[in-house]
């Protein structure tokens, strides 16, 4: 008997080759699509609100470079700026004029950032800002919130222990318990937990690190007075407030979440949008704090490719395109998507809850929007996986995890959103 022919596609062939090269076949875990039970996509190109896989199939994209593609993919102004910078050379090993230009643009938009330092990733930015906070305060403990992801530095890659204001246990193999014990993990939106943590550890806490809108366990909005309480409590204890705006910076408006909610942090970390899709990170804040960073001060941090000309060029072009009118249209588009998804689910008698802040949203398969990580993690993961697959089969690419934000870009129009809602009606009904 002749064996059946096994047909392979270019995508499947590339995925097989990747598995022989990279752990799990990917260079970042969520790209493996294991949370949704699908084979990983191999994406070859993007343009505007669309991406194409290696087999030429087009998708409406809500991954958006994990939030970096605010203007959509391959925006002509950004492509031209990067090409112009590339013709002048890549890493030159000294300060470049474009570093100054992008730095000034960021400072104009976020007045709390009086001085800043570019890095090559958000992880580097947060790691460096935490080191700076410890040096500035002479303290060693950090407060973070359960479900928040601040990069994969050891001290922040931890999970909560049991009870309120408990010290953390390692959230990854290879993280020493001694390092994890310096991190206090609290429930997001829990004012009493913040108060208790400072009552127990206040003299040792260097900084509170917080996503002003939680976006790495799905979107969770800050409840009234939560951010203000964190600001007031940290200041009263002599600790610093560090806003991780790697996701929210320039997404919730030019001034980020800190402008949207009217909170003035001591330090801010940025990434994603400020590089227009190129590798980047930045940390900055009060001038007196940033003066502690080498070579001005004793806090060492460096990077061979920090302030890379191509990243600077992409960032400058991107920020220049983020006008108030475009932010306004994006808000309208995001609301249209939210309301349409709710109607599609209701029409199919499916129970969902949608959390949205600006152009960040998550569809949770649970009765109500979550207020913390524990509630978010109680969502029906299998239901999301089925929904993801049904949407993918209809040409809509969602984040391959129930606990990631959907990212709308300024390239998404009513055409793409209507196509998404048509697919959602069929997916919910299936």
Characterization of the model:
- The structure is a single chain.
- By secondary structure, the chain is of the alpha/beta class.
- It has two domains: 10-62 and 323-429, Aspartate Aminotransferase, domain 1; 76-321, Aspartate Aminotransferase, domain 2 (3-Layer(aba) Sandwich).
- 36% of the residues lie in helices and 15% in strands.
- It contains 14 helices and 16 strands.
- It has helices at 10-19, 76-86, 97-109, 122-137, 177-180, 191-201, 226-236, 256-261, 287-290, 309-321, 324-347, 373-376, 381-393, 414-429; strands at 43-47, 50-53, 58-61, 115-119, 141-145, 158-159, 169-170, 183-186, 205-210, 240-244, 267-271, 281-285, 353-357, 360-364, 396-397, 406-407.
- A seven-stranded mixed sheet has the order 4-12-11-10-9-5-8, with helices on both faces. A four-stranded mixed sheet has the order 1-2-3-15. Strands 13-14-16 form a three-stranded antiparallel sheet, with helices on one face.
- Strand 1 and strand 2 form a beta hairpin.
- Helix 3 packs parallel to helix 10 (309-321) and helix 6 packs parallel to helix 7 (226-236).
- The longest helix has 24 residues, at 324-347.
- It is globular, with a radius of gyration of 22 Å.
The computed structural class is alpha/beta
Please provide the ordered H/E string of secondary-structure elements.
HEEEHHEHEEEHEHEHEHEEHHHEEHHEEH
Instruction: Domain count, please report it.
Output: 2
Percent helix range: 25-40%
Overall pLDDT confidence: 94
Give the helix tally.
14
Distance between the termini: 38 Å
Going across the biggest sheet, name each strand in turn: 4-12-11-10-9-5-8
